[in-house]
Amino acid sequence: ELKRILTFFRKRDLQKLRDLIKITTGNDRQLKEKLLKYIIAKKEINDADGSLYIYGKIEKSKFSHLKKRLTDDVYKVVFIQNNKMLYNDRIPEKKLECRKLLIIGEWLFNKGEGETGKIKLKKALSLANQFSFFYEKIAILDILRINSGMFNKWKEFDAYSKDLDQTLLKLSNGLKMKEYAYRIGLLDNFKSNIKVKNNKAIDKVIENAEKINDETNCSNTRYWYYLMQANYYLIQKDFDTSLIYHNAILELIENQPDVYGEQRLIGFLIGKANIQYRTKKYEDLETTLEECIKPKVSHNSHNEFRYLELAFRLGIERKTFDKCVFYLDQLKKHKRQKISYNNNRVLLYEAFYYFRKGEKTEALSIIGTVKELVKDKSGWLFGIHYLEILCLLDLEEYGQASYKIENLNHLIFRQKNKNIIRIKLILKVIKTLIRYPNDYEKVFNLQFVNIINLKASKDEFYWDPLGFEVVRFDKWLEEKKEGKAKNKNEKFR
């Protein structure tokens, strides 16, 4: 635990910790300093080695208590930090400020300094009102109410009681709306084939949420309501309506301090950009990427990585390959690329780039460097095998393609709780194509129903432009068929 926590500390934080340890009395100071030195120096730590290093022998109980005392010091440093040093966003900064004022105010009350304590609590209350910190506000109002009652100030007591009741109602409504937002939002994570339309349970959630939204004038509750609706329509692939709610969320975030957060804002801007990409609103997407997202993302952050991914894929769609090279280079240098999952995604993007340029052999070479995404839960491993098969088919390497299909079949067989209907249909069509190479008319006739379903791109057959099927199969097949027919006509002219 200590090792992980200390990785969040900067040099100045460590110096504050050392300064705090210095005021420790007796032998404990030397022991803490020695333990801190051991933790920082070692890549991996364990209790046995640590105990030997500090005591010269195994002292399990002593070492355990020493770790606890040092951990307490670490958290003391965290608590006394400047709020801006701890958080990058305004809301958590202000929440911590509010909580510190609440703790100090309550302590002053307990020490008999009621007036000074009241000043601190009033400042905390002002922050709680401004940023909808309902939990903190309830605690503050309760302390102020009891204090006013003790001094026979019943008008104040009644006012605090009324405010407390209203706050409890706002908290209850906000929590319930948050629950509804998560109930809808998580459907797409764990039940990808669920039908949300005409589903009685889901209809009831929407009905209850709409009732609360109509009765409540609270921006925090509206935020969760808009998020629920954005996800509800996103799951149904009604992207235009989902975009309306995304824009409503963005307007709320930009204008209401109690829901504003820089990372939250960027997250929804990226969500908006995803919808624009899916609906082929490429000009709007470029504006969102370059004018709204790019100026806000931090260097080497997760959101910057997502921005670069979208910018690259936009370049692919527009065939601005010089920009693709630039964004690929940025992705390769990115700190997040060191994570194996992201590294393999970047390699897949690079292979996709060469595929789109018509350089299939180079694309295959890139795919050969991809490592298995053992813990991949988004289907990108499908994408690696799938793109490899398309490259082999374009190069007329049917034997190798057949072998790779079996590998992909084994992968599909291992998947649970995933929508794999579309990729299974694709493999059926590809197997027929391998059986009758270059006879696209026959392939279309034999796999007519499956190809129609792939083209329709509805429900479980939906093609996700941002998913693992980076090259839409039914379009690729259509182009192959048209190319074959064109070559045939030119031959007989």
Provide the helix percentage: over 70%
Indicate the mean pLDDT. 89
Number of strands: 0
Low-pLDDT regions: none
How far apart, in Å, are the first and last alpha carbons? 76 Å
* Main sheet specs: none
Global outline: globular
SSE string, helices as H and strands as E: HHHHHHHHHHHHHHHHHHHHHHHHHH
Structure commentary:
This protein is an all-alpha fold and 493 residues long. The chain is built from 26 helices and no strands. Helix 16 (282-293) packs antiparallel against helix 17 (302-318). The longest helix is centred in the middle third of the chain and has 32 residues, at 154-185. It starts with a helix and ends with a helix.
Give keywords.
493 residues; mainly alpha; 26 helices; globular
